[in-house]
Amino acid sequence: MSKLDQLDNQDMKNLFDAILSLENRDECRRFLEDVCTVGELISICQRYAVAVMLRENKTYAEIAKATHASTATISRVGRTLNYGNDGYDLIIERMKERS
Fold it and tell me: How much is the CA Rg of the chain, to the nearest whole Å?
């Protein structure tokens, strides 16, 4: 089974439904603190911040200084923005609409 196939099973669908059932930031924080390590959460937050800054056309140097992300991480997020599933763009756009 490929890694992509692992994302298309009932357990994964159940997890996605569980996440979608969360009603507010506190519930989301509580759930994610149970599911992820602090380091994993920090990495996810950092990658999201990098994606936002890349979409704002910030330079790698500006992003690294602001987020403390390595250039490898910035590059990886950049590749995902260009060749991924548009998940970052979807959420970045939704967050713009909310503000």
Answer: 15
Per residue in 42-97, pLDDT (tens digit) is 999 999 999 999 999 999 999 999 999 999 999 999 999 999 999 999 999 999 99
> Are the C-beta atoms of residues 49 and 67 closer than 8 Å to each other?
yes
Q: How far is CA 98 from CA 47, 83, 90, 92, in A?
A: 20, 26, 13, 10
How far apart CA 35 and CA 44 sit, in angstroms, is 13
CA torsion sign for 68, 71, 88, 17 is: negative
Q: What is the pTM of this model?
A: 0.86
CB-based contacts of 22: which residues, under 8 Å, 6+ apart?
28, 31
Report which of 81, 69, 74 is spatially closest to residue 42, judged by C-alpha positions: 69
Cα(57)–Cα(62) distance, integer angstroms? 10
